[in-house]
Design goal:
Number of helices: 8
Distance between the termini: 125 Å
Strand order of the largest sheet: 4-1-2-8
Radius of gyration: 53 Å
Structural class: alpha+beta
């Protein structure tokens, strides 16, 4: 799933929280539109398909219209991705006619025709409630826009007596920092691959370190084998002195003289007696 904007994340967070609290009213599409979008009222007709947007603040028509369109298309996207379902509030059948969406806690639409302060604005009447809710004043409608577009079909499909039901997949998506199951699996695979790569690199660095040590020892051995024979004659006297030669000669002569002496072998009494007995037997 694509990355959501901050506004879209806030919306998803809102409907997920409403489900956790069991607040069905907060999941009504009409209420969400009234609270989150910036116009006074929306009225649409199915035949012919026409939409009327009323708003108090001075602004171009494109602003509220685009805002409404973005909202409805996002609802459609969530439904197509199996994150929500749209439920219909069952009510007695009514004749198909105009649909109107406005904040009933703040305004009254199309009051009794005998009201003396009634002012008509493109066929629509809106009265703003005061704080004490005792008297009515005319709500200022700065602009009304009529346009024939297929957004009417979306209004009928997603707003009229409709409730957004967040599916478990959306709750899981919200609870995991707005990351889909596929994205989390991909990130886990990527993390495992990075961890394996780090282990391989650590082993490689260890092997390179050992190889470097062996190489350094070998180099020192070669250098020592070359330099030591050169250094020893320079700093040490390796010649044999005459006195040392004489001592070696005397030692050799002495060893020779000792080798020329006869070797005396003495036999014990038992050995002599055995020899005598053998001689007597022969005789």
């Amino acid at each position: 799933m694509r990355q959501l904007t901050e506004k879209e994340k806030k919306f998803v967070e809102g409907i997920a929280t409403a489900k956790e609290k069991g607040d069905l009213e907060a999941l009504q599409v009409s209420r969400i539109i009234r609270e989150q979008l910036s116009f006074l009222a929306i009225r649409w007709e199915m035949s012919p398909k026409t939409i009327h947007i009323h708003y108090k603040e001075k602004m171009k028509f494109e602003g509220p219209y685009y805002e409404l369109s973005d909202f409805l298309y996002f609802i459609e996207e969530l439904e197509s991705r199996n994150l929500i379902r749209i439920q219909t509030i069952l009510q007695p059948k009514t004749e198909a006619g105009d649909r109107i969406l406005y904040d009933r806690n703040k305004y009254i639409y199309n009051p009794l025709s005998n009201s003396s302060d009634q002012i008509e604005e493109d066929g629509d009447f809106f009265y703003e409630k005061d704080d004490k809710n005792k008297r009515l004043t005319i709500a200022e409608i700065s602009h009304t826009v009529n346009i024939n577009v297929n957004i009417v079909d979306y209004l009928e499909k997603y707003t009229y007596n409709k409730i957004i039901y967040p599916l478990p997949l959306l709750m899981d998506y919200r609870n995991n920092h707005f990351k889909s199951l596929e994205q989390r699996q991909f990130e886990k695979q990527l993390s495992d691959a990075q961890e394996k790569h780090a282990q391989n690199m650590a082993e490689l660095r260890k092997s390179l370190k050992m190889s470097t040590r062996s190489f350094v020892v070998s180099i020192f051995g070669i250098i020592a084998a070359i330099i030591i024979p050169i250094i020893i004659p320079i700093y040490f006297d390796t010649k044999i002195k005459e006195t040392q030669i004489e001592q070696i000669t005397e030692a050799i002569k002495k060893s020779r003289s000792e080798l020329k002496r006869p070797i005396e072998v003495s036999f014990g009494d038992s050995l002599k007696n055995n020899i005598k007995s053998l001689k007597s037997k022969k005789n």
